[in-house]
Amino acid sequence: MKRTAYLATAASVVLMFGGPVAAAAAATTDTARTVPAAATARADVTAGAAMAAALKAHPGVVQSVDRDGSVWHVDVISKDGKHAELEVDAATGSVTKENQDDNDDDGSENAALLAAKVKAEQAVKPALAAHSGQVWSVNWDDDDDNGKTYWNVEVKTTGGKTQNVHVDPATGKVTASTTDSDTDDNDNS
Questions:
Q1: Can you say whether the dihedral through the CA atoms of 115, 116, 119, 120 is positive or negative?
Q2: What is the pLDDT of residues 99-157, one digit of tens each?
Q3: Nearest to residue 114, comparing CAs of 139, 77, 66?
Q4: Distance of CA 129 to the CA centre of its chain
Q5: Which end of the chain is more exposed for a tag (fewer CB within 10 A), N or C?
Q6: Pick from 124, 68, 138: which is nearest to 98 by CA?
Q7: CA 151 to CA 172: how far, in whole Å?
Q8: Can you name the residues that pair with 167 across neighbouring β-strands?
Q9: Torsion of the alpha carbons at 96, 70, 75 and 99, rounded to the nearest 10
Q10: Cα separations in angstroms, 67 against 47, 112, 157
Q11: What phi-psi label fits residue 107: left (phi over 0), alpha (psi between -120 and 50 degrees) or beta?
């Protein structure tokens, strides 16, 4: 008899307190399911993802990638010397071809770029290891006064500064780093 009383009491406690808790849990679950996908946070396409998408659309070697608002501009040189200017949507990763032209020179203009051991996609890693943040551009630079070539990786640091990091195309090591006082996100220079 005592056991029946305990079971009846326990059952009424569960019904009394379990009912509203279960209803609240179900309401929370339903609310989470009914949030539209557009309202959830969406990560932007990174420089690395933009380069991968561009190379899938136009195989070759990335010469440069620059973020301009909601678009990545990616220049690709194919193995046969053709140059393509691609745009990658920074939200969706979709690629459009803006321009493609044949290389009119004898191939020597891009020979160092095509022969570089460290490609643009690989230059990102040591630059981010030196300065945490987000890569905003990667550019092949062969106009150095002393005749050296390097990848110039622009990193928007977590501290709000812009670091220009030079990465050696043969070793992948950071050779120089300077802080840029200009923080304009739409600067394509």
A1: negative
A2: 777 655 555 678 889 999 999 999 999 999 999 999 999 999 987 667 789 999 999 99
A3: 77
A4: 15
A5: N
A6: 68
A7: 9
A8: 151, 174
A9: 40
A10: 8, 24, 15
A11: left
